[in-house]
Amino acid sequence: MPAMSSEARAIALLALAAFVSASAFRICDPMLPQLAAEFGTTTGQAARAVTAFAVAYGVLQMFFGPVGDRYGKYRVVSVATVGCALGSAGAVMAGSLDMLVFCRALSGAAGAGIVPLSMAWIGDNVPYERRQATLARFLTGTILGMSAGQLAGGLFADTVGWRWAFAALVAGYLVVGVLLHLEVRRQRAAGFAQVDPNAVRQGFVAQARLVLGAPWARVVLATVFIEGLLVFGALAFAPSYLHERFDISLTAAGALVAVYAVGGLIYTVVAGRILKRLGERGLAVAGGLVLGVAFLSYLLGPVWMWSLLASVLAGFGYYLLHATLQTNATQMVPSARGTAVAWFASCLFMGQAAGVALAGAVVDEIGPAALFGGSAVLLPLLGAFFARALKARAAIQQG
Question: Where's the Major facilitator superfamily (MFS) profile domain (predicted)?
Protein backbone atom coordinates (compact mmCIF):
# COMPACT_ATOMS: atom_id res chain seq x y z
CA MET A 1 0.00 0.00 0.00
CA PRO A 2 1.40 3.46 -0.80
CA ALA A 3 2.21 6.09 1.77
CA MET A 4 -0.77 8.17 2.80
CA SER A 5 0.47 11.19 0.85
CA SER A 6 0.67 9.12 -2.35
CA GLU A 7 -2.72 7.55 -1.67
CA ALA A 8 -4.30 10.95 -1.05
CA ARG A 9 -2.83 12.34 -4.28
CA ALA A 10 -3.99 9.35 -6.31
CA ILE A 11 -7.54 9.56 -4.92
CA ALA A 12 -7.66 13.33 -5.42
CA LEU A 13 -6.83 12.87 -9.12
CA LEU A 14 -9.52 10.20 -9.44
CA ALA A 15 -12.00 12.60 -7.83
CA LEU A 16 -10.94 15.26 -10.34
CA ALA A 17 -11.58 12.85 -13.21
CA ALA A 18 -14.98 12.02 -11.68
CA PHE A 19 -15.71 15.76 -11.49
CA VAL A 20 -15.25 16.27 -15.23
CA SER A 21 -17.11 13.06 -16.06
CA ALA A 22 -20.08 14.02 -13.88
CA SER A 23 -20.08 17.52 -15.40
CA ALA A 24 -20.37 15.97 -18.84
CA PHE A 25 -23.29 13.83 -17.73
CA ARG A 26 -25.42 16.75 -16.55
CA ILE A 27 -24.24 19.55 -18.82
CA CYS A 28 -27.01 19.07 -21.40
CA ASP A 29 -29.90 19.24 -18.91
CA PRO A 30 -30.36 23.05 -18.78
CA MET A 31 -29.61 23.56 -22.48
CA LEU A 32 -32.40 21.26 -23.73
CA PRO A 33 -34.76 24.14 -24.67
CA GLN A 34 -31.97 25.81 -26.70
CA LEU A 35 -31.02 22.55 -28.40
CA ALA A 36 -34.69 21.97 -29.25
CA ALA A 37 -34.95 25.47 -30.76
CA GLU A 38 -31.71 25.21 -32.74
CA PHE A 39 -32.43 21.81 -34.21
CA GLY A 40 -36.19 22.38 -34.68
CA THR A 41 -37.52 19.67 -32.39
CA THR A 42 -39.21 19.15 -29.01
CA THR A 43 -37.53 19.24 -25.63
CA GLY A 44 -38.26 15.54 -25.26
CA GLN A 45 -36.48 14.77 -28.55
CA ALA A 46 -33.54 17.02 -27.64
CA ALA A 47 -33.17 14.92 -24.49
CA ARG A 48 -31.74 12.19 -26.75
CA ALA A 49 -28.41 13.98 -26.17
CA VAL A 50 -28.77 13.07 -22.49
CA THR A 51 -30.09 9.57 -23.13
CA ALA A 52 -27.33 8.67 -25.62
CA PHE A 53 -24.61 9.57 -23.14
CA ALA A 54 -26.32 7.61 -20.37
CA VAL A 55 -26.97 4.50 -22.50
CA ALA A 56 -23.38 4.34 -23.77
CA TYR A 57 -22.07 5.09 -20.29
CA GLY A 58 -24.17 2.32 -18.81
CA VAL A 59 -23.54 -0.39 -21.40
CA LEU A 60 -19.78 0.12 -21.60
CA GLN A 61 -19.35 -0.23 -17.84
CA MET A 62 -19.59 -3.96 -18.42
CA PHE A 63 -16.65 -3.75 -20.81
CA PHE A 64 -14.40 -1.59 -18.66
CA GLY A 65 -14.72 -3.74 -15.53
CA PRO A 66 -12.82 -6.75 -16.93
CA VAL A 67 -10.44 -4.45 -18.83
CA GLY A 68 -9.55 -2.64 -15.60
CA ASP A 69 -9.04 -5.95 -13.78
CA ARG A 70 -6.71 -7.10 -16.56
CA TYR A 71 -4.66 -4.02 -17.47
CA GLY A 72 -4.81 -1.94 -14.30
CA LYS A 73 -7.68 0.22 -13.15
CA TYR A 74 -5.75 3.48 -12.78
CA ARG A 75 -4.15 3.11 -16.19
CA VAL A 76 -7.49 2.48 -17.89
CA VAL A 77 -9.01 5.56 -16.21
CA SER A 78 -6.20 7.72 -17.62
CA VAL A 79 -6.80 6.41 -21.15
CA ALA A 80 -10.58 6.82 -20.88
CA THR A 81 -10.27 10.57 -20.32
CA VAL A 82 -8.66 10.97 -23.77
CA GLY A 83 -11.64 9.25 -25.40
CA CYS A 84 -13.97 11.59 -23.53
CA ALA A 85 -12.06 14.59 -24.88
CA LEU A 86 -12.48 13.31 -28.45
CA GLY A 87 -16.23 12.84 -28.03
CA SER A 88 -16.68 16.30 -26.55
CA ALA A 89 -14.62 17.82 -29.38
CA GLY A 90 -17.03 16.23 -31.85
CA ALA A 91 -19.99 17.72 -29.95
CA VAL A 92 -18.47 21.18 -30.36
CA MET A 93 -18.62 20.80 -34.16
CA ALA A 94 -21.95 18.90 -34.42
CA GLY A 95 -24.09 20.25 -37.24
CA SER A 96 -27.23 18.25 -36.47
CA LEU A 97 -28.98 16.73 -33.49
CA ASP A 98 -28.10 13.25 -34.75
CA MET A 99 -24.39 14.13 -34.85
CA LEU A 100 -24.58 15.65 -31.38
CA VAL A 101 -26.27 12.49 -30.10
CA PHE A 102 -23.54 10.34 -31.70
CA CYS A 103 -20.73 12.39 -30.14
CA ARG A 104 -22.43 12.34 -26.76
CA ALA A 105 -22.64 8.56 -27.05
CA LEU A 106 -18.90 8.42 -27.79
CA SER A 107 -18.16 10.56 -24.72
CA GLY A 108 -20.40 8.37 -22.60
CA ALA A 109 -18.76 5.19 -23.87
CA ALA A 110 -15.29 6.44 -22.95
CA GLY A 111 -16.45 7.97 -19.67
CA ALA A 112 -17.76 4.59 -18.57
CA GLY A 113 -14.24 3.70 -17.49
CA ILE A 114 -13.79 6.53 -14.99
CA VAL A 115 -16.05 6.40 -11.92
CA PRO A 116 -16.53 2.62 -11.47
CA LEU A 117 -12.86 1.79 -11.93
CA SER A 118 -11.95 4.60 -9.56
CA MET A 119 -14.25 3.08 -6.95
CA ALA A 120 -12.82 -0.38 -7.60
CA TRP A 121 -9.26 0.97 -7.25
CA ILE A 122 -10.23 2.43 -3.87
CA GLY A 123 -11.77 -0.92 -2.93
CA ASP A 124 -8.52 -2.67 -3.84
CA ASN A 125 -6.21 -0.27 -1.99
CA VAL A 126 -8.11 1.16 0.99
CA PRO A 127 -8.95 -1.10 3.98
CA TYR A 128 -12.65 -1.65 4.62
CA GLU A 129 -12.61 0.28 7.91
CA ARG A 130 -11.51 3.42 6.04
CA ARG A 131 -13.30 2.70 2.79
CA GLN A 132 -16.67 4.33 3.41
CA ALA A 133 -15.06 7.60 4.53
CA THR A 134 -12.70 7.47 1.55
CA LEU A 135 -15.54 6.82 -0.87
CA ALA A 136 -17.41 9.76 0.66
CA ARG A 137 -14.43 12.01 -0.08
CA PHE A 138 -14.20 10.62 -3.60
CA LEU A 139 -17.91 11.34 -4.03
CA THR A 140 -17.25 15.05 -3.65
CA GLY A 141 -15.79 15.02 -7.15
CA THR A 142 -18.94 13.46 -8.60
CA ILE A 143 -21.25 15.70 -6.56
CA LEU A 144 -19.49 18.93 -7.48
CA GLY A 145 -19.20 17.79 -11.09
CA MET A 146 -22.93 17.25 -11.43
CA SER A 147 -23.53 20.67 -9.94
CA ALA A 148 -20.94 22.31 -12.19
CA GLY A 149 -22.43 20.61 -15.25
CA GLN A 150 -25.92 21.89 -14.47
CA LEU A 151 -24.62 25.40 -13.87
CA ALA A 152 -22.21 25.53 -16.82
CA GLY A 153 -24.78 24.16 -19.26
CA GLY A 154 -27.23 26.95 -18.48
CA LEU A 155 -24.55 29.63 -18.27
CA PHE A 156 -23.00 28.82 -21.65
CA ALA A 157 -26.44 28.43 -23.27
CA ASP A 158 -27.48 31.89 -22.07
CA THR A 159 -24.21 33.63 -23.00
CA VAL A 160 -21.69 32.49 -25.61
CA GLY A 161 -23.64 29.41 -26.76
CA TRP A 162 -23.97 25.75 -25.92
CA ARG A 163 -21.00 24.66 -28.06
CA TRP A 164 -18.60 26.39 -25.68
CA ALA A 165 -19.82 24.15 -22.88
CA PHE A 166 -18.42 21.15 -24.73
CA ALA A 167 -15.21 23.03 -25.50
CA ALA A 168 -14.76 23.55 -21.77
CA LEU A 169 -15.19 19.80 -21.26
CA VAL A 170 -12.46 19.11 -23.85
CA ALA A 171 -10.02 21.30 -21.92
CA GLY A 172 -10.97 19.69 -18.61
CA TYR A 173 -10.54 16.15 -19.89
CA LEU A 174 -7.15 16.89 -21.43
CA VAL A 175 -5.78 18.47 -18.25
CA VAL A 176 -7.01 15.62 -16.07
CA GLY A 177 -5.78 13.02 -18.55
CA VAL A 178 -2.24 14.39 -18.41
CA LEU A 179 -2.24 14.43 -14.60
CA LEU A 180 -3.54 10.86 -14.43
CA HIS A 181 -0.91 9.69 -16.91
CA LEU A 182 1.83 11.23 -14.77
CA GLU A 183 0.41 9.50 -11.70
CA VAL A 184 0.42 6.14 -13.52
CA ARG A 185 4.10 6.67 -14.31
CA ARG A 186 4.82 7.52 -10.66
CA GLN A 187 3.03 4.39 -9.47
CA ARG A 188 4.86 2.25 -12.02
CA ALA A 189 8.24 3.69 -10.98
CA ALA A 190 7.41 2.95 -7.34
CA GLY A 191 6.37 -0.61 -8.21
CA PHE A 192 2.89 0.00 -6.82
CA ALA A 193 -0.37 -1.43 -8.19
CA GLN A 194 1.29 -3.48 -10.90
CA VAL A 195 -0.89 -6.08 -12.61
CA ASP A 196 0.37 -9.63 -12.13
CA PRO A 197 0.90 -11.04 -15.65
CA ASN A 198 0.74 -14.62 -14.29
CA ALA A 199 -2.59 -14.19 -12.54
CA VAL A 200 -5.44 -16.41 -13.71
CA ARG A 201 -7.87 -14.36 -15.80
CA GLN A 202 -11.54 -15.11 -16.24
CA GLY A 203 -13.28 -14.09 -19.43
CA PHE A 204 -16.02 -11.49 -19.61
CA VAL A 205 -18.83 -14.06 -19.55
CA ALA A 206 -17.33 -15.94 -16.61
CA GLN A 207 -16.95 -12.76 -14.58
CA ALA A 208 -20.49 -11.66 -15.44
CA ARG A 209 -21.82 -15.03 -14.30
CA LEU A 210 -19.86 -14.73 -11.08
CA VAL A 211 -21.44 -11.36 -10.31
CA LEU A 212 -24.97 -12.11 -11.48
CA GLY A 213 -24.89 -15.51 -9.80
CA ALA A 214 -24.75 -13.86 -6.38
CA PRO A 215 -28.32 -13.28 -5.10
CA TRP A 216 -27.33 -10.22 -3.06
CA ALA A 217 -25.62 -8.69 -6.08
CA ARG A 218 -28.87 -9.01 -8.05
CA VAL A 219 -30.78 -7.18 -5.32
CA VAL A 220 -28.26 -4.33 -5.20
CA LEU A 221 -28.12 -4.03 -9.01
CA ALA A 222 -31.91 -3.98 -9.40
CA THR A 223 -32.28 -1.37 -6.66
CA VAL A 224 -29.67 0.98 -8.11
CA PHE A 225 -31.25 0.69 -11.57
CA ILE A 226 -34.64 1.83 -10.25
CA GLU A 227 -32.94 4.53 -8.16
CA GLY A 228 -31.26 5.97 -11.27
CA LEU A 229 -34.52 5.81 -13.23
CA LEU A 230 -36.62 7.64 -10.64
CA VAL A 231 -34.09 10.24 -9.45
CA PHE A 232 -32.31 11.32 -12.61
CA GLY A 233 -35.21 10.89 -15.00
CA ALA A 234 -36.95 13.66 -13.08
CA LEU A 235 -33.86 15.77 -12.35
CA ALA A 236 -32.96 15.94 -16.05
CA PHE A 237 -36.14 17.92 -16.69
CA ALA A 238 -36.05 20.03 -13.53
CA PRO A 239 -34.21 22.98 -15.18
CA SER A 240 -36.61 23.04 -18.13
CA TYR A 241 -39.58 22.79 -15.76
CA LEU A 242 -38.37 25.69 -13.61
CA HIS A 243 -37.52 27.76 -16.70
CA GLU A 244 -41.00 27.35 -18.16
CA ARG A 245 -43.02 27.50 -14.94
CA PHE A 246 -41.39 30.53 -13.34
CA ASP A 247 -40.10 32.27 -16.49
CA ILE A 248 -36.50 32.35 -15.26
CA SER A 249 -33.36 32.11 -17.39
CA LEU A 250 -31.73 28.80 -18.21
CA THR A 251 -28.71 29.91 -16.20
CA ALA A 252 -30.87 30.52 -13.13
CA ALA A 253 -32.78 27.27 -13.63
CA GLY A 254 -29.57 25.27 -13.99
CA ALA A 255 -28.09 26.98 -10.93
CA LEU A 256 -31.17 26.18 -8.84
CA VAL A 257 -30.92 22.49 -9.66
CA ALA A 258 -27.13 22.59 -9.21
CA VAL A 259 -27.74 23.37 -5.53
CA TYR A 260 -28.28 19.60 -5.44
CA ALA A 261 -24.53 19.46 -4.80
CA VAL A 262 -24.92 21.27 -1.48
CA GLY A 263 -27.09 18.45 -0.19
CA GLY A 264 -24.53 15.91 -1.38
CA LEU A 265 -21.70 17.77 0.32
CA ILE A 266 -23.70 17.96 3.55
CA TYR A 267 -23.95 14.18 3.37
CA THR A 268 -20.17 13.75 3.01
CA VAL A 269 -19.64 15.86 6.13
CA VAL A 270 -22.14 14.05 8.35
CA ALA A 271 -22.00 10.56 6.79
CA GLY A 272 -20.07 8.93 9.63
CA ARG A 273 -22.29 10.32 12.37
CA ILE A 274 -25.54 9.49 10.57
CA LEU A 275 -24.35 5.95 9.82
CA LYS A 276 -23.59 5.34 13.50
CA ARG A 277 -26.99 6.67 14.52
CA LEU A 278 -29.26 5.16 11.86
CA GLY A 279 -27.31 2.21 10.49
CA GLU A 280 -27.49 1.14 6.86
CA ARG A 281 -31.19 0.29 6.99
CA GLY A 282 -32.04 3.64 8.52
CA LEU A 283 -30.03 5.45 5.86
CA ALA A 284 -31.95 3.69 3.09
CA VAL A 285 -35.35 4.54 4.58
CA ALA A 286 -34.37 8.14 5.33
CA GLY A 287 -32.94 8.59 1.83
CA GLY A 288 -36.16 7.50 0.16
CA LEU A 289 -38.29 9.74 2.36
CA VAL A 290 -36.10 12.81 1.86
CA LEU A 291 -36.12 12.27 -1.90
CA GLY A 292 -39.92 12.05 -1.84
CA VAL A 293 -40.15 15.39 -0.05
CA ALA A 294 -37.67 16.90 -2.51
CA PHE A 295 -39.69 16.05 -5.60
CA LEU A 296 -42.92 17.16 -3.95
CA SER A 297 -41.22 20.50 -3.30
CA TYR A 298 -40.29 20.83 -6.97
CA LEU A 299 -43.87 20.05 -7.95
CA LEU A 300 -45.84 22.04 -5.38
CA GLY A 301 -43.53 24.92 -4.49
CA PRO A 302 -45.48 28.15 -5.17
CA VAL A 303 -42.38 30.24 -5.99
CA TRP A 304 -39.01 29.41 -7.53
CA MET A 305 -37.23 29.73 -4.18
CA TRP A 306 -38.80 26.47 -3.08
CA SER A 307 -36.62 24.73 -5.66
CA LEU A 308 -33.55 25.68 -3.59
CA LEU A 309 -34.86 23.55 -0.73
CA ALA A 310 -35.94 20.85 -3.17
CA SER A 311 -32.46 20.62 -4.71
CA VAL A 312 -30.67 20.46 -1.36
CA LEU A 313 -33.04 17.73 -0.18
CA ALA A 314 -32.63 15.84 -3.46
CA GLY A 315 -28.85 15.79 -3.11
CA PHE A 316 -28.88 14.85 0.56
CA GLY A 317 -31.56 12.19 0.16
CA TYR A 318 -29.93 10.67 -2.91
CA TYR A 319 -26.60 10.15 -1.20
CA LEU A 320 -28.22 8.77 1.94
CA LEU A 321 -29.66 5.99 -0.21
CA HIS A 322 -26.98 5.73 -2.89
CA ALA A 323 -23.96 5.65 -0.58
CA THR A 324 -25.53 2.69 1.21
CA LEU A 325 -25.93 0.91 -2.11
CA GLN A 326 -22.42 1.89 -3.19
CA THR A 327 -20.71 0.56 -0.07
CA ASN A 328 -22.50 -2.75 -0.52
CA ALA A 329 -21.45 -2.79 -4.18
CA THR A 330 -17.74 -2.75 -3.31
CA GLN A 331 -18.22 -5.97 -1.33
CA MET A 332 -20.70 -7.81 -3.58
CA VAL A 333 -18.04 -10.00 -5.22
CA PRO A 334 -14.56 -9.14 -3.84
CA SER A 335 -12.85 -11.65 -6.14
CA ALA A 336 -14.05 -9.69 -9.19
CA ARG A 337 -14.42 -6.25 -7.66
CA GLY A 338 -13.72 -4.32 -10.87
CA THR A 339 -16.41 -6.21 -12.75
CA ALA A 340 -18.88 -6.07 -9.85
CA VAL A 341 -18.55 -2.31 -9.37
CA ALA A 342 -18.70 -1.80 -13.12
CA TRP A 343 -22.00 -3.69 -13.25
CA PHE A 344 -23.25 -1.57 -10.37
CA ALA A 345 -22.39 1.63 -12.21
CA SER A 346 -23.80 0.20 -15.43
CA CYS A 347 -27.15 -0.48 -13.80
CA LEU A 348 -27.20 3.00 -12.28
CA PHE A 349 -26.59 4.76 -15.58
CA MET A 350 -28.79 2.43 -17.59
CA GLY A 351 -31.48 3.33 -15.09
CA GLN A 352 -30.75 7.00 -15.70
CA ALA A 353 -30.95 6.48 -19.45
CA ALA A 354 -34.25 4.64 -19.15
CA GLY A 355 -35.48 7.31 -16.76
CA VAL A 356 -34.65 10.20 -19.10
CA ALA A 357 -36.24 8.44 -22.06
CA LEU A 358 -39.39 7.64 -20.06
CA ALA A 359 -39.46 11.11 -18.54
CA GLY A 360 -39.21 12.70 -21.98
CA ALA A 361 -42.27 10.78 -23.12
CA VAL A 362 -44.15 11.64 -19.91
CA VAL A 363 -43.34 15.36 -20.22
CA ASP A 364 -44.34 15.50 -23.89
CA GLU A 365 -47.56 13.48 -23.49
CA ILE A 366 -48.80 14.13 -19.94
CA GLY A 367 -46.79 16.92 -18.37
CA PRO A 368 -44.19 17.38 -15.62
CA ALA A 369 -46.64 16.93 -12.75
CA ALA A 370 -46.86 13.19 -13.38
CA LEU A 371 -43.07 12.99 -13.60
CA PHE A 372 -42.27 14.67 -10.29
CA GLY A 373 -45.29 13.20 -8.53
CA GLY A 374 -44.36 9.67 -9.58
CA SER A 375 -40.83 10.00 -8.23
CA ALA A 376 -42.14 11.52 -4.99
CA VAL A 377 -44.34 8.47 -4.37
CA LEU A 378 -42.03 5.68 -5.57
CA LEU A 379 -38.68 6.69 -4.05
CA PRO A 380 -39.78 6.24 -0.39
CA LEU A 381 -41.04 2.78 -1.35
CA LEU A 382 -37.68 1.96 -2.93
CA GLY A 383 -35.80 3.01 0.21
CA ALA A 384 -38.08 0.87 2.37
CA PHE A 385 -37.59 -2.10 0.05
CA PHE A 386 -33.80 -1.96 0.25
CA ALA A 387 -33.89 -1.53 4.03
CA ARG A 388 -36.00 -4.67 4.26
CA ALA A 389 -33.58 -6.50 1.95
CA LEU A 390 -30.67 -5.48 4.20
CA LYS A 391 -32.51 -6.81 7.24
CA ALA A 392 -33.23 -10.13 5.51
CA ARG A 393 -29.60 -10.50 4.45
CA ALA A 394 -28.35 -9.76 7.96
CA ALA A 395 -30.69 -12.43 9.34
CA ILE A 396 -29.36 -14.97 6.84
CA GLN A 397 -25.74 -14.17 7.69
CA GLN A 398 -26.38 -14.44 11.43
CA GLY A 399 -28.32 -17.65 10.99
Answer: 10-391
Backbone angles phi, psi at 75, to 5 degrees: -60, -45
Crossing angle of helices 337-365 and 368-398, in 10° steps, is 150
Q: How far apart are the first and last CA of the chain?
A: 35
∠231-56-350 over CA atoms, to 5°? 30
Chain CA centroid to CA 107, Å: 14
Q: CA separation (Å) from 83 to 80, 96, 100, 184?
A: 5, 21, 16, 17
Taking only the tens place, the pLDDT of each residue in 197-238 is 444 455 567 777 777 777 888 999 999 999 999 998 888 888
Alpha carbon separation from 341 to 23, 231, 302, 326, 333 (Å, rounded):
21, 20, 41, 8, 9
CA 129 centroid distance within chain: 24
CA distances to 50, 88, 166, 347 from 106, rounded to whole Å, are 12, 8, 13, 19
Do 362 and 149 touch, CB atoms closer than 8 A? no
To the nearest 10 degrees (0 to 180), the angle between helices 115-125 and 73-92 is 160
Helical axes 260-300 vs 128-158, angle rounded to 10°: 60
How many angstroms separate the Cα of 147 from the Cα of each of 20, 23, 256? 11, 7, 9
| pLDDT digit string, tens, across residues 233-286 | 888 888 888 888 888 887 788 778 878 888 888 888 887 788 888 888 999 999
Question: What domains can you pick out in the chain, each with its CATH number?
Answer: 1-201 (1.20.1250.20), 202-398 (1.20.1250.20)
Q: How many CB atoms lie within 10 A of CB 187?
A: 18
Q: Which residues contact 303 (CB under 8 A, 6 or more apart)?
A: 246
Q: What is the 3-state secondary structure (H, E, C) of 142-209?
A: HHHHHHHHHHHHHHHHHCCCCHHHHHHHHHHHHHHHHHHHHHHHHHHHCCCCCCCCCCCCCCHHHHHH
- pTM, two decimals, is 0.71
Position with higher pLDDT, 275 vs 178: 178
